[in-house]
């Protein structure tokens, strides 16, 4: 309005016009304020309503969640199904943590808690770490209550006895452990129901066990003893063997033992242990070859065996009659002091039903040409499906001859010298052969091949520190009816001096239909077959 844009005195007529304009603007302003006030009241009402509705969300969510829980199929699982689930959740190697199943399953609901905690099998296994912070009477009371819930089921008990780092605590800890062992073996009424027993100790067995009162464990099926006491004298090392001989001679159910190198001594066959009924033996005590042979003769039911054998005291065995061991399925033998008689020892053992075999020749102090001559494994082990054979210098096996005579072999792990690896690969791939029938007859249905190419130096062949590790996947396509494809998984450990040459050799195989991929991989130097299931 122009009249309001200057400061001149207004005439009477102009005053009327300005007054009228003011009244109209004032009315418009009042209407705007009134509308804003109405909107603010509406907003306040809606906010109040929103607050009321939001307060109702959590109760409704809880109601819906409660309904979902009630309708959940897990809530309606039968009691026996819940217990079966908890049974399958039992860890193979418990850590003692409350988060481990099936303890964690007991926290799902009250029904799950009743189902899990009412399992007798849950209370039949216990892992104890002896600690001086827990009084002996407290531990005894705890074990009595815990195993009491098993209601007579066979028990499984694992005990760890560790020496404290502080010297002034070691003697009290040993005294405490000895008292507990005396109570457990001689006064605990449930010792006769223990089926699996495992003891790991930092103390010598002579300090921990009482040979005058051996334990009577009538239901014992498997026993594991592991001792880490350093520099234990030989007489004290034989103590555990004497204790076992007195305690196990009447145990009719014993089938599995796993013992370290400080338990039995070098002539376990002389102990009154029921060797004839054992099916699984894992011994880390180095046995002279004659004692190992004597032990095998006594183990007439043996199915799985792990042995360390020293044949340095083995004399001429030529002319001895070959002995059959028909029950063996898995065998792992490590020769500590390899001599030419090592193969003689194996030639006089026949294992017709062994499916998995691992043989390791470690120290070749007196290696002769006999060790490099073909070893007719196929006639002594006709059922092999998994073979691992390692020697620092050369694998004492005629591989082509063995593969031709053993079509059941699926996994082969061997060591080959650098100068022989090309010949080995040429044999496998048959570059000069175009006849697929010949390929089928020579290359067996291997699914896995692990090869360690050894250095000429036998001393460094065991360390592997100089070695560049290469893994190769080779796929062999064979054209036949049905267009079937055979796959061979090849893993190799190659010295750095031939790494590039090795890759070039593989490149030459591509024209025969072989493809490969090179990755970083470190296969084990010494082949082992873990067949002990405790």
Portion in beta strands: 15-25%
Rg measurement, Å: 39 Å
List low-confidence stretches.
Answer: 315-320, 365-374, 430-444, 457-486, 519-534
Silhouette: elongated
> What kind of assembly state do the chains in view correspond to?
single chain
Global structural class = alpha/beta
Total beta-strand segments: 18
**Percent of residues in helical segments?**
25-40%
The main β sheet shows up as: 16 strands, mixed
Q: What value does the average pLDDT take?
A: 72
Task: Compute the separation of the termini in Å.
Answer: 103 Å
Helical region count?
17
Q: What does this protein look like?
A:
This protein is an alpha/beta fold and 534 residues long. Among the domains are: 78-89 and 99-119, no CATH class; 343-350 and 362-534, no CATH class. It is 35% helix and 21% strand. It contains 17 helices and 18 strands. The strands form 2 sheets. It has a 16-stranded mixed beta sheet that branches. Strands 8-10 form a two-stranded parallel ribbon. A hairpin with a 7-residue loop joins strand 15 (467-477) and strand 16. Helix 3 (79-88) packs across helix 4 (110-117). The longest helix has 44 residues, at 12-55. The radius of gyration is 39 Å and the shape is elongated. This is F-box domain-containing protein. Keywords: Coiled coil. Residues 22-56 form a coiled coil. It comes from Agrocybe chaxingu.
